[in-house]
Specification:
single chain; about 110 residues; mainly alpha; Arc Repressor Mutant, subunit A; two-stranded parallel ribbon
């Protein structure tokens, strides 16, 4: 799994400020569509939260993690909001507005999706 975790970390580093991705989206981009839970495990084990912005990953409904691994329940909300991502009172991000779409953005990770 370590090699897969490294791929997760590399991809998550590419999510721009002001955008989010889902666990499933990351798994699909890594050609492992059934590994969304493993993506979550990788992010929970994040060895370097200062450079791997795991706070930019939410669930398929846009919901933030209730027990965010690096600072408690409100840490993910605060980090996202500091980057301009609105999180509603129920802890949900509007995926129509904030979901990262690397196909429409200039992103060096596009080669991974081929």
């Amino acid at each position: 799994m370590e090699g897969f975790f490294d791929k997760v970390y590399s991809l998550v580093k590419e999510i721009p400020k002001g955008k989010v991705a889902t666990y499933g989206q990351i798994a699909k981009m890594l050609n492992a569509p059934r590994f969304s839970q493993i993506v979550g495990f990788a992010l929970h084990s994040n060895p370097d939260p200062k450079t791997i912005p795991c706070h930019r990953v939410v669930n398929r409904e846009g919901r933030i993690c209730s027990g965010f691994a690096f600072g408690g329940d409100e840490a993910q909300r605060k980090l996202l909001e500091s980057e301009g991502v609105r999180v509603d009172k129920d802890g949900v991000v509007d995926l129509k507005k904030y979901l990262w779409n690397p196909e429409t953005e200039n992103n060096p990770m596009n080669d991974l999706m081929l």
